[in-house]
Amino acid sequence: MGTAAVPRRFCRCACFCSENLYVARYGLHVRFRSEQQLRQDYEPILRSRGCVSPKDFQQLLGELEQEVERRRRLGPESAARKALIASSYRPARPEVYNLLQEATLAPEFLAAAEYSASSGADLKGLLQRLETVSEEKRIYRLPVFTAPFCQALLEELEHFEQSDMPKGRPNTMNNYGVLLHELGLDEPLVTPLRERFLQPLMALLYPDCGGGWLDSHRAFVVKYAPGQDRELGCHYDNAELTLNVSLGKAFTGGALYFGDLFQVPSTLAKPLEVEHVVGQGLLHRGGQLHGARPLGTGERWNLVVWLRASAVRNRLCPMCCRKPDLVDDEGFGDGFTREEPATVDVCALT
């Protein structure tokens, strides 16, 4: 009798509690270890952006201390929310929790994924099956879900938003949205989407970024609306690759803009602007600097999937740009593992 496979334990890097803390009021990501360090590293730029009085600085200090504490509690609190939702929440559209079926996926997406998994598939052939938004920046677009599925998912997300269930922030920059693993949509929707369809496609598009070795993800929906989040500052994702799908609703504005990779010193004087197309997904490298222009009218909901390859990130954390200092975490953590996948030739990714 064969032995059952032991589930892999995923980790986060210890830098999560000190690096890339976002201060929306000043449009700045900062490292925060102490008040002295914060003053030494950021006082000139903070002053230039409006943090000028002792009261301003003390308010900033309090916000950063609260954010550090929130991050430290994130894993256990998220697990507790997920358990409560699983036991008490009643969905409005229970069919979206069914195991992902091909009927929910756009024909164009199915064709691209099927081609990518076929014998003899190559990048040239795949590029004929999707839209190249930017050859230089390697940004691509194609329909992902059918319109009825987007509508059903939106109705379910709005129902959850209006419920009295506890809700976690989707990420460290957005305040409004839904974490899909807490809602119970990771296992039936996102994991099969990654394993069956995105993996072969990303392996052809981004072989140098771990596209063929994706083994975890973090998926969330972000919401932009008047009186809530309306725009998103420039940043890069804690992911090797990203899928960003526009779910709706009716809206104006909110275009995405892209710069260079975060490792390349540059300015965003002439960023590439990309309008959303409902039902379609943008594919890009996680390290690509990007943001979202202010929403004009209506509501905009996007499904974002951060795709991670431990074979890549185990060597260098993209957030602190150092070898990760691993800390055990809940679920997929931040995609790090204590051991390399046994079948990965890490040298092939260098």
From TrEMBL:
Residues of the Fe2OG dioxygenase domain: 215-309
Pfam families in the record: OGFOD2-like
Transmembrane annotation, as ranges: none
Cofactors: L-ascorbate
Entry annotated with the keyword Metal-binding: yes
Keywords: Dioxygenase, Iron, Metal-binding, Oxidoreductase, Vitamin C
Record flagged with keyword Transmembrane helix: no
GO molecular function: dioxygenase activity; iron ion binding; L-ascorbic acid binding; oxidoreductase activity, acting on paired donors, with incorporation or reduction of molecular oxygen
InterPro entries: Oxoglu/Fe-dep_dioxygenase_dom, Pro_4_hyd_alph
Superkingdom of origin organism: Eukaryota
Protein name according to UniProt: 2-oxoglutarate and iron dependent oxygenase domain containing 2
